[in-house]
Amino acid sequence: MQETVIQAGRSEKYYWQDLWRFKELLLILALRDITVKYKQTFVGIAWAVFRPVLTVSVFVFAFDKVAKIENKSAIPLQIIIFTGVIFWNFFAMSFQQVSNSITGNANLVSKVYFPRLLMPLSSVAVPLLDFLVGFAVMIPFLIYKGYPPTFHILFVPFFLILSFLASFSLGVIFASLNVQYRDFQQIVPLIVQYGFFVCPIAYPIASIQELSWYPIYQWINPLAGIIEGFRWCLIPNYHYFQWDTIIPSVVFVTITTILSVVFFRKKENSFVDFI
Amino acid sequence: MTVIEAENISKRYIIDHIKGNAKGNTLREIVTDNIKNLFTKKVSEEISHEDFWALKDVSFKIEQGDRVGIIGSNGAGKSTLLKVLSRITEPTLGKINIKGRVASLLEVGTGFHPELSGRENIFLNGAILGMKRQDIKNQFDAIVDFAGVEQFLDTPVKRYSSGMYVRLGFAISAHLEPEILIVDEVLAVGDADFQRKCLGKMKDASTSGRTILFVSHNLTAVQGLCNKGMFMKKGQLIEMGETNQVLATYLSHVQKTALESWWLTPEEAPGNDRVRLKSIKLLPQFLDGQKHIDVRTKFKIQIEFWNMLEGANLNLSLHLNSLTGECIFNIGTTSKTFDKGIVTAECEIPDNYLNDGSYSISFMVVKDTSSVVFNFEEALIFEIEDYREGTSWYGKWPGYVRPKIDFHISQLELESVS
To answer: Which residues of A touch B132 (CB under 8 A)?
Structure first.
């Protein structure tokens, strides 16, 4: 028979056991988000295809055809943008969903017990699905443009996980803070909007690499390394990425993930009092 | 076997009181307050924090198979206690040992998503409440049957009537099969039929060895289902014990300040083997915005009692007494023949009749207009408040009665007195 002890500050011991015990709930919440998102839509999951295609078309129009951004790399801007957009959509959407996962599920927080970490974890499901669909559309496009992917593509999961950890850790911190101070949900769209321009998504990293402050940029913006790594997986002969450029990103992401989970756990028990 | 053992459970919330120039505790306000403090020399304690103890030193033991009814006024701490037991919120102090799985029904339809169909919501809600997918599949038909929503399984839940919603929500929880089931006032919604079904299901659950904790304001339900009661008031456990005993304590606490006294069963009501008092009520006819009876208020006195005498000629004789024991008046009903059952009597005290003060009502049930069957002394105590108009004197108005009698005064003649 299961024995539980409830006491102030005592939830540590059971937490990780409970996370495993509730693993089915993780799936159910993810399924719920996916089903709800595409229910009652006529086009359904095809939206996951339209979105990236539309975004890429618009950005190619704006940056390539109109603004005529100087493309210092050998690769066509369209490919730079497509790969960047697929990646960025995943990161941005994950970040937004995770940061909103606690306040968005307020009714669950105040009425049911389960380890709260399940909520941010499950909220990544929809962005992940969108990513997979967009990815599936991108591959034929790359082949059509004459850049068929090599075996490097097998490294995609690695960079995907890095991106997930980055968006998750940042999102979890925001989610925890947002419960008490709702200001944070206002900051999220700003980060997403400006992050898009700060990261080399609509322009190649070659354009920054020759600038004198590039080494500092690498350390401040860990995402740049991850995006470039992602591009390396997909585009053959992509020499703008070396494996040592990824080290700052990995270090940064690992530290933030651990810190964010610790922070979340500390704040978790008071969510119900502020929500 | 003791399934729940709680020792000195306390839960504190901190309430902020904002005084002076401090604005509050959202991020913006905290930042601006701190910046302001940088520039002024005053360091004032502008936000005071008050400790609010929602639960204080609550200790109890619950055995396996117990059906415990938790009762108390609103704000007594019942829901907070359930939240602590359900691990939704942590206690500030104290420790609880629980043996067995706990399933809590604190709200019907927790996690229901309006866009999803009934079928999808059953799996969602079941998983949220801790059921394994296989268990839900096994119980699926039983759940649908209990809720009676078979026809609407594939319609989005946002289209359900509130009754269907509640039935479905409860149906899922009812098939949870945990060792300990915690239910919080969910019977407040739903029609009588539904409530009966729910209580029946909970009773079944307990006969199969499960323990139930049940919070409700429906005292008849508590009486019907529970073998033990817990009476909570202002965060403390006042009494725990056999249901009827705890109910009686609760009722006596509640009615000291109410305008009515009533008893649920003849056994616990005052009286003898021939008559038992069921209820005595003051029904005031308040003017707009009035909350208390004052000298202008007209009110009815309504008395109900259980009569165990077959075919007896009974009448009621009522005394209105001052608190010092003086009888103000004595009125009686006519004598009629009554059978066994409940008898009711009513009279109306006019407005602008009695003076302000405290009164008590005693009454007798009389047989054949001469022999007293039972004398209910001080069956109800009430107060009539003062009201003044047209005078600037505010001393205690003398007398037991304060009727509104026209008393004329006018000038008759001028200057004839030397």
So the answer is: 24
**Cβ atoms of A200 and A208 closer than 8 Å:** yes
Identify the closest residue of chain B to A270 by CA–CA distance.
B89
CB distance B76 to B232 below 8 Å: yes
Closest chain B residue to A112, measured at CA: B88
Chain A interface disruption, residue of B58, B88, B121, most A CBs within 10 A? B88
CA distances from B378 to A126, B153, B318, B325, B348 (A): 70, 58, 11, 10, 19
Collect all residues from B whose CB is shorter than 8 A from any CB in A: 13, 26-28, 83-102, 104, 106-107, 110-111, 113, 115-116, 120, 123-124, 127-130, 132-133, 179
| Domain B260-384 class, CATH top level | mainly beta
Q: Kindly list the residues from chain A whose CB atom is less than 8 angstroms away from the CB atom of residue B96.
A: 5-7
Distances (CA, A) of A45 to A30, A42, A102, B199: 15, 9, 25, 44
The helix/strand/coil state of B210 is coil
- Check residue A8 and give its pLDDT: 79
Rounded to whole angstroms, the Cα distance separating A16 from B99 reads 20
Nearest to A189 by CA among A92, A104, A256: A92
Domain with CATH 3.40.50.300 in chain B: 58-255
Residues 6+ apart with CB under 8 A from A50: A43
Return the residue in B11, B30, B87, B179 with the most chain A beta carbons within 10 A, the one to mutate for interface testing. Answer: B87
Q: How many DSSP H helices and E strands does chain A contain?
A: 14, 1
pLDDT of residue B256: 47
Q: C-alpha dihedral over A22, A23, A24, A27, to 10 degrees?
A: 130
Asked whether the beta carbons of A112 and B111 are under 8 A apart, the reply is yes
Least confident of B130-134, B157-161, B270-274: B130-134
Q: Is B192 exposed, middle or buried (0-12, 13-18, 19+ CB in 10 A)?
A: exposed
Q: What is the pLDDT of residues B83-104, one digit of tens each?
A: 999 888 889 999 999 998 888 8
Instruction: Please give the full DSSP string across B218-275, using - where no structure is assigned.
Output: -HHHHHHH-SEEEEEETTEEEEEEEHHHHHHHHHHHHHTTSSEEE-SSGGGSSB-SSE
Q: What is the CATH number that goes with domain B58-255?
A: 3.40.50.300
Cβ distance B94 to B60 under 8 Å?
A: no
Q: Which residues contact B181 (CB under 8 A, 6 or more apart)?
A: B102, B103, B104, B105, B173, B202, B205, B210, B211, B212, B213
Q: What is the pLDDT of residues B374-417, one digit of tens each?
A: 998 888 888 888 887 777 777 778 888 999 899 999 988 887 77
Select the more confidently predicted residue: A146 or B16.
A146
Give me the residue label for tokens 């499950």: A122
Q: What is the pTM of this model?
A: 0.69
How many Å is the maximal CA-CA distance in chain A? 69
CATH 2.70.50.60: which residues of chain B?
Answer: 260-384
Helix (H) or strand (E) holding B387: none
Q: Check: CB of residue B131 under 8 Å from CB of residue B101.
A: no
Contact of A99 with A174, CB cutoff 8 Å:
yes
Supply the DSSP symbol for B398: P
Closest to B4 (Cα-Cα) out of B79, B69, B62 = B62
Global ipTM: 0.81
Does residue B278 sit in helix, strand or coil?
strand
Q: What angle do CA A202, A208, A209 make, to 5 degrees?
A: 130
Residue of chain B minimizing CA distance to A21: B130
